[in-house]
Design goal:
199 residues; alpha/beta; Rossmann fold; 2 domains; 7-stranded mixed β-sheet; 7 strands; binds flavin mononucleotide; transmembrane
Length: 199
């Protein structure tokens, strides 16, 4: 026999459903924001007169962060720089003070920059150091980008530029037909070329 659920049962079911979704969201958020493994990637000659350090904390689901950081680094090395792309875990032993340029690349989680990168950034003295901010996300990155920029400046860094690139929201003007990640890499290479003019 079909038994109609009462209104209060209905609201209980809604509350339980929302609660389960919030717990799942929290678990996924903690998972993506964990400090990922130490990875070191480099390009250009060690003997180059200028060097850059590019820092990110890898997202476990997709590697837009890695691709964007490597595209930035490759553009620098094409102009005779030595560039290292390091995860937050790999950078901890290194000395930022030797770098001519430091690039902080964060993923956006819940409208904020990822905590691993930010926790590291907040411990750094960047007095007078030239920095660049890269903010990645599905498409809602404004707040995270602003927080990243403000934090770099509050640590004493000289912010040469800041850009956001997206996995979901189109990176290009309407009408440009190319994969979104491909466009992000082209745009970050153009941005790196612009940054080079500051040296
Ligand atoms: C729990 C969670 C929260 C997220 N919150 C945001 C957000 O607020 N804004 C946004 O643009 N992207 C958000 N994203 C998407 C990630 O930023 C995106 O997956 C990542 O930056 C993609 O780049 P990647 O290839 O470097 O991982 C979120 C992703 C997860 C898993």
């Amino acid at each position: 026999m079909i038994k109609w659920i009462s209104l209060s049962d209905f609201w209980k079911a809604i509350l339980v459903g929302v609660g389960i979704m919030l717990v799942l969201w929290l678990v996924v958020s903690l998972f993506v924001m964990r400090k990922a493994e130490a990875i070191v990637w480099e390009t250009g000659a060690h003997t180059a007169s200028r060097n850059a350090i590019i820092i990110y904390n890898p997202d476990p689901f997709y590697n837009l962060d890695e691709q964007v950081c490597k595209a930035f680094a490759t553009t620098l090395s094409n102009s005779n720089w030595y560039a290292q792309v390091l995860t937050v875990k790999a950078i901890e032993e290194s000395n930022l003070a030797q770098a001519d340029l430091i690039v902080f690349c964060t993923n956006t989680y819940n409208w904020a920059p990822d905590t691993a990168t930010m926790d590291f950034l907040k411990t750094q003295n960047l007095d007078g150091m030239k920095c660049v901010a890269l903010t990645l996300g599905m498409g809602t990155t404004d707040r995270a980008q602003r927080i990243l920029e403000e934090t770099i400046e509050s640590r004493g860094g000289e912010l040469l530029g800041s850009k956001a690139y997206w996995l979901g929201k189109p990176n290009a003007e309407p009408g440009v037909v190319a994969p979104n990640v491909h466009i992000a890499k082209l745009l970050v290479a153009e941005f790196a070329d612009e940054i080079l003019k500051s040296f």
